[in-house]
Amino acid sequence: xxxxxxTGSTSGIGLGLARQxxxxxxxxMLHGLDPEGPALAQSLAQxxxxxxxxxxxxxxxxxxxxxLIDEAHQAFGSIEVLINNAGIQHxxxxxxxxxxxxxxxxxxxxxxxxxxxxxxxxxxxxxxFGRIINISSAHGLRASAFKSAxxxxxHGITGLTKALALEGAPHGITVNAICPGYVKTPLVEGQIRDxxxxxxxxxxxxxxxxxxxxxxxKSFIPxxxxxxxxxxxxxxxxxxxxxxxxxxxxGWTAQ
Length: 255
Ligand code: NAD
Description:
Elements: E1 3-6, H1 12-23, E2 27-31, H2 37-48, E3 52-55, H3 62-76, E4 81-84, H4 99-127, E5 130-135, H5 148-168, E6 173-180, H6 186-199, H7 203-210, H8 223-234, E7 245-248
Parallel strand pairs: 1-2, 1-4, 2-3, 4-5, 5-6, 6-7
Bound molecules: nicotinamide-adenine-dinucleotide (NAD).
Family: Belongs to the short-chain dehydrogenases/reductases (SDR) family.
GO molecular function: 3-hydroxybutyrate dehydrogenase activity
InterPro entries: 3-OHbutyrate_DH, NAD(P)-bd_dom_sf, Sc_DH/Rdtase_CS, SDR, SDR_fam
């Protein structure tokens, strides 16, 4: 059996990834801060008949990240897939951008992916097999105003993905990033509320006039489509794809 650690998998895209990896027969380390995490782990284990462990390690702290990886390795004996998915967002003009939000976004969206990759590396290297998948964003390839920290962190993920792909190549470790456009998750629902307040327009207008303006396919990206791409990257057929930042964003970055 193969095993996957998916950070931030108690909600949104991460939970969708967890569901599809469990369905595909992976043992899972479910992870995140949502209080329903342990119950979600239990129900996934029952529904898909795979082992599911749970961790609420706070990714702001590098030592908690190494404990998360150690726990998964102790529980499973091998870690084939690491999906660095957890992320947060804050939308504000640069002059009003709170320093604490800048630090938190850089820590959770960028540094945590580095520390988690560093901690799984020796296990993957020893097994001569590993798949690291970073859930980046269209904002890893393009910028938007008022998202300085998020755009910086996600562009950083593009660089980290390339550098680790080069280091992993001799060891059977591939490293890729998936760059989704807008997906309707709690993170995006929060942004819709914030944008409605800052632009003084309705939430429906935010979706139509702001959010999906850059997304030529005028609908949200289904989580299941992102999970299908991640499963491909994790599969044997993904073995020669590495260092890529793959857009799945309804044509956003074609512009
Ligand atoms: P979400 O808010 O639904 O879930 C975020 C997850 O991260 C949760 O499980 C949460 O508990 C966890 N998390 C947050 N802070 C944490 C911390 N300090 N320590 C540990 N866990 C923490 O978000 P989502 O929309 O599913 O986003 C998941 C990823 O996808 C993020 O990296 C995000 O940038 C990226 N993304 C999202 C969209 C979108 O439209 N939703 C688009 C492109 C990329």
